[in-house]
Amino acid sequence: MPDDSPSVPRPAAPAHSPEPAAGLRPATRAVHVGRPPVVPDAPLNTPITMAATYVGGGDVEYGRYGNPTWLAFEEALGSLEGGRALAFSSGLAAVATVLDLVADGETVVAPQHAYQGTLGQLGDAGLRGRAQGKLVDIADTAAVAAACEDAAILWIESPTNPALEVADIAAVTEAAHAAGAQVVVDNTFATPLLQRPLELGADIVLHSATKYLAGHSDALLGALVVRDDALFDVLKGRRDLLGAIPGTLEAWLALRGLRTLHLRVERAQANAVELVRRLEAHPAVSRVRYPGFGAIVAVELHAGPDAADLLCRTTDLWVFATSLGGVESTLERRRRWKTEAPTIPESLVRLSVGVEDVEDLWADLAQALDRLG
Ligand SMILES: *Cc1c(COP(=O)(O)O)cnc(C)c1O
C-alpha cells in the first residue's frame, strides 16, 4: 500500500473548517465550535482520543505533537478569543512557555498584583539572571507606558488577582508596541465573553483554563491564544519541545465546561453584583473591591485578619478553598499565603462567586459576617 493511501487513518488532522462559526455570536460559538462534522452516525461530541502515537505518514505522528481532543478545545477557545489557541498542561505551563521567549537580561513589565505563580516565575527568572521583572500599578496607564521603555514584554493581568485593579488594555498595549514590546494578557478572570484582548491589540492571550473555562474545579489546564501565525508556530514549537502538553481528559473536560461558559458567567456575575450591593452595606465590611464585571469580589474586614480567617471557617455553603471560577462559591484570605504581595491587606478575603441561588449565598455569608460583630 502506498504511504499516502486514503485508507490510512489520520486521526489528528484538523477535521473542521478553520472558521466554522464566522458571523455567529459568542454564546453560539461556545456551544457549537469544536465538534465533529455533522454526518450520519457521527458522535455529536468530540471523543476522548487516548493515543500516544499515530499511524505514520500523517501530520501529527506522535502524541506530544497533537491530539484531536486538544484540537477541539483549541478550536472552541480560539473562536471565542478571535485567534488560534494552544492548550498546555496548566496555566503556569503556558506562563513558562511565554517567559521562555524572553532573551537573557531582557525586561518584563508586570503588575505588582498578579497571580502569585506568574510573579514567582518572574522572580525566579530574575534570580537566575534571565528576565528582569519591573513591577507596576497596571491601572496607572502613564506609569505602565513609561515602564515599557526597553521592555521585551508587557505582561497584563486585568482584573488583577486579588486586588481587582483594571488596566486600560488598548492604551497600554499601544504604548508597549510603540516601545517595541510584545503584550501578553492573562484573561483568566474576565473570560473571552467579557474581554477580548486580541481585539484590543494584544499579541498573546493567556488562560488558566482550570478556572472559568473548565468551570467545575475538576481539571488543570492552560492555554495561549494568538493571531500571528509565525508566533503560533514558535509557541507550538516550544510546546512540542518542552512537552508541557495538556492531558487529553482535561482538554475534554474543559471543552465540556466551555459549552456552558456563557450561562455560568452570566449567572455568577449577576450573583456577584447583588452580593457586592449587600456587602457594601454590612457593618463588618470596611471595603469591597469589584471591578464592575466578572464574578470575583474582594472584601476587607474592620476586625482584621483573625476575623477574616474566622469568616472563611464559619460559612457552610461557601467552601474555604483556593482557586476560583468553579460553579461552586469559594473564599479564602489571600495573605494566608506567604507568597502573596505584602501590599494586599491582611484582612482581604477573595470571593469566587458561583452559580448557586444568590439568596442562599447571601444568607450564609451574612450569618458568618454577623458573628464578627
Ligand atoms: C490560576 C491562575 C493561573 C495559573 O494557572 P494554573 O492552571 O493553576 O497553573 C494563572 N493566572 C491566573 C490569573 C490564575 O488565576
TrEMBL record:
Entry-annotated residues carrying N6-(pyridoxal phosphate)lysine: K211
Record key words, sorted: Pyridoxal phosphate, Transferase
Report the EC number(s), separated by commas if there are several.
4.4.1.2
Cofactor(s) of this protein: pyridoxal 5'-phosphate
> Which reaction equation describes what this protein catalyses?
L-methionine + H2O = methanethiol + 2-oxobutanoate + NH4(+); L-homocysteine + H2O = 2-oxobutanoate + hydrogen sulfide + NH4(+) + H(+)
Domain of life, source organism? Bacteria
Q: Which SUPFAM superfamilies match?
A: PLP-dependent transferases (SSF53383)
Which family does the UniProt entry place this protein in?
A: Belongs to the trans-sulfuration enzymes family.
What protein is this chain from?
A: homocysteine desulfhydrase
UniProt organism field = Nocardioides zeae
Q: What is the taxonomic lineage of the source species? A: Bacteria, Bacillati, Actinomycetota, Actinomycetes, Propionibacteriales
